[in-house]
């Protein structure tokens, strides 16, 4: 932990701090996991020195919604999400999910996490709700194993579904659990992996999958357990389920969540494109977070949320990839670009769009706030050295370098980054994941997908 690094003469350091500071031609001193100093001509004695003269540095991106297990159900024109209703898509894809086992969980998680790291994401939340006879209860354990190998910060959402399909759920019975077994495993995972301290590499979130797919008691008991043990809560909300909820319980999903207490500063929802403007103020006043996932919204032709209006109401909006089956990549820089363009498309009718830099803060400091982290999300003294670097010496970026804050989304910088650092440790640099034999793992991952899924569904995988 005492090892020091000095990033020397970074061309720009975009801090995303409260003052929106950009440091030019400056150094960053890192001691252990923490940023100790930012300034010019810092002493380098005892430091490993990294040349930053061709780098723009940014805070590591924070992904607040994903489904890693779906990574092996991608690029399938036979289940083409844009051309199907959500319910029809679910009916086709859930039988595949029901065949996911522990090895698929492990390798699909490695695949997604590698993609995230290569594109500047240093902290990832995943909503893991795929529990079958084949996975057993080991899914999060296998994900923690993968995260530790790669060196990414991992917040695991332990999800579940408890309502039978015969009672209105969209989930096949092979993927159901009881509330009690779900809560018992949550307690086990929290005891085993949850670290609330600064520089934590692993945390657990209690995350029943979706209001329409579980009994109400699953949510109320989740709430009681999470608040007793001091962990956060997450679920899907406002992504097409409101008509079902109105028919089933006579109220919109957010009103239902408010009534049972599944709302507040320790809660965030995914998607929210069904939210109405009169609901923004409730989420703002209760400090309930929202993860915006632009890729599935655009693919599915769903409404694009009004981020400026939400922020004006006090909401904390963050950024998520969402499941690979409705995104087909785990590239959060690409999601950032898509979010920026989608907001810009609606700017005239909404009275203005967020800048590219505004969206960067959604993906960094807002993500940290959403996950309850005060030690990440910006590049400031005392915070963890979670960052990524863009090499701006490349010809395609000539003419853009006058504005480091707005560069990324504005100019479509969404390819592999030059360097990714997590807690002071370089985990990806110059095209190489430093902690693994990537080619070997890629072969193993492809084999796991082929043996466990493609051979069982030849008409779907082709």
Automatic annotation (TrEMBL):
SUPFAM superfamilies attached to this UniProt entry: Composite domain of metallo-dependent hydrolases (SSF51338), Metallo-dependent hydrolases (SSF51556)
Keywords: Hydrolase
Record-linked InterPro entries: Amidohydro-rel, Metal-dep_hydrolase_composite, Metal_Hydrolase, MTA/SAH_deaminase
Entry EC no(s): 3.5.99.3
Keyword Secreted (UniProt): no
Top-rank EC class of the record's enzyme: hydrolase
Xref: CDD domains: ATZ_TRZ_like
Organism in which the protein naturally occurs: Sphaerochaeta globosa (strain ATCC BAA-1886 / DSM 22777 / Buddy)
UniProt-recorded Gene Ontology molecular function terms: hydrolase activity, acting on carbon-nitrogen (but not peptide) bonds
This protein's name: Hydroxydechloroatrazine ethylaminohydrolase
Amidohydrolase-related domain boundaries: 56-427
Recorded superkingdom: Bacteria
Lineage, opening ranks: Bacteria, Pseudomonadati, Spirochaetota, Spirochaetia, Spirochaetales
